[in-house]
Description:
Blueprint: H1 2-14, E1 20-29, E2 37-41, E3 47-51, H2 53-58, E4 63-70, E5 78-83, E6 88-90, E7 99-107, E8 112-121
Antiparallel strand pairs: 1-8, 2-3, 3-6, 4-5, 4-7, 7-8
Amino acid sequence: MLLQVCLILLATSALSEGYVEFGESTFSGDTSLRSYMHWSHKGRNAPLLSWISSKLADSGVRHVSVSASPVSKPHHFVHKSAGVAKGRILLQGLLANTEDVLTTQALGRSRLIFVYTVHLKTGQTDANHPHQS
């Protein structure tokens, strides 16, 4: 119960920042790699995943892939991938004011090395910040 209250307070306080990551529901593979990845935001509906390229490459990662879908509208699907050397993925096209499920995969030559899923809340769009899709 206390954990739920803390998560609600955290989500409420971070909404003004545009979005908040509020839980990992899936976590498998080389879990140590999660510490080299970080979510931030560029605008209200464009989360940015960045990572330490050398640490992921040392573990055999060649590509990073991110997909997102709103919980309430699973047919709206956004996907982007990048080579590990790039060090970041900007995921544009998320719907405003939704809870999204983001799945991140670290892929090696012929295998999945790491996967995790987070839930994220996007910001609300207004006239000064039009939604782009």
